[in-house]
Amino acid sequence: MGLKHQTSKNSSSSLPTIRTTSFIILALLLTSFLLFFAPPAHHHLSDPFFQTEDPRFYGDLREAQFAWNKLCLGPVLEKLKLAVFSKTWPVGAAPGGMERHASTLYTALAARGHEIHVFTVPSDRKSHPDIHDGNLHVHFAANDHGSVNCSLAFEIFHKENNGKSFDYVHTESVSLPHWRAKMVPAVAVTWHGIWYEIMHSKLFEQLLSDPQGLRTGSDTELRDAMPRLVDEIKFFPSYTQHICISNSAGEVLTNIYQLPRRNVHVILNGVDDTKFVYDQDAGTRFRKQHGVPSNASVVMGVAGRLVRDKGHPLLYEAFLSITENYPGVFLLVAGTGPWGKRYAELGSNVKVLGALEPSQLSEFYNALDIFINPTLRPQGLDLTLMEAMQCGKTVLTPNYPSITGTVVINEGFGYTFSPNVGSFVEALERAIKDGPAKLHKKGMTCKDYATSMFTSTKMASAYERFFLCMKNSIYCKYPLPTDC
């Protein structure tokens, strides 16, 4: 794997390498421009993964070329025994998106009567006893560094499999490495980010940090991304079935990674709609509690890790520009990280809240007029977007295919921008000029859509039916008599 660059005393012999590197970078830039800056509507027209209307589907679910969340899947009597490999399991305060997703999904499946065994490590990297809660069994198998010990996890897996065999094995991304996956006859993988998307993340970070290309060696990560992508495409067939969490990733896996379309499925993430709810009174209380001025013209909010790749350099510069012309705008920042101190420097228009307990997040969203996700990572789907939408908030986010093809499918849901300061400022100005009343109207549109697509119930129903379908083809038929 990879491209090996040989050095030579003859400087002229390095020219082919330079030309090759230049060609790769040029190809990356051209491909990225075409894919990431072309109008999303073109994708809606050309590829079935971008369907946004009710597909009125009848037939074999393995042929479905849209998110399974669109379907109304009824109850089933058959129960499954599932093995799950996950990088981490939420323990303690402020868990990340991957941990929240895992906990939400497998808790919901266990509540439906399925026996779930999760092989993972605690998110806080500390020692904890295994969790056995009804049908949910969380087995912690950590190495000395707190990461998953694959050998130990497999020992526990085989022990649990020797009694009553697992019906299917599921891994969150590469939690079950591809060389291990080859040993498992029936394994499905959910991709929360693929190197094709990561490559574009590195492109955007490069353009932001060194727009003129003045720093020597600043493009090293970008140049190294292509060999990693080629390597990933080669090992993806090690997994039997592939689940994508965005429509655009489904398109990439079939068109770029060349996986059989019948082996690629789209199931969108969901959030607990009993915890993330629209509540104006809770939002009002939160504003008062944290000193949001009563005369603020528009209250914006951002949540998550306050680090560079989450786009905080973009938001910092854009909001600094906005406050010069719109002094009544207020920004609430929830999370921890290096950029927390930088936001605090912006003065009285910004309040840095630090890490919020999961129970406080819904109140935080309800306190906003608009939720901002400035991420530089066009990978997967950020749960914060779905949580905010469930709370009735419109969103402002980069125009990545994973978002515009799945979450913000038209301007009625919110605002999008290209990942640069100028475009970001323009989007913020559009939202500010629309004002709280129009933002509220868009937020209600977001809430209705999120309720129909991004709930934990919809997600769990789709995964349940997927595993049943993989075990017994009878369940691949849609609709069944029990479906609504």
Automatic annotation (TrEMBL):
Q: Where are the transmembrane segments?
A: 21-38
Where the record annotates domain Glycosyltransferase subfamily 4-like N-terminal, the positions are 95-274
Residue span(s) of domain Glycosyl transferase family: 288-438
Keywords in alphabetical order: Glycosyltransferase, Membrane, Transferase, Transmembrane, Transmembrane helix
Q: Which CDD domains does the UniProt record give?
A: GT4_PimA-like (cd03801)
The record, for InterPro entries, names: Glyco_trans_1, Glyco_trans_4-like_N
What is the designated name of this protein? Glycosyltransferase subfamily 4-like N-terminal domain-containing protein
Q: Which organism is it from?
A: Aquilegia coerulea (Rocky mountain columbine)
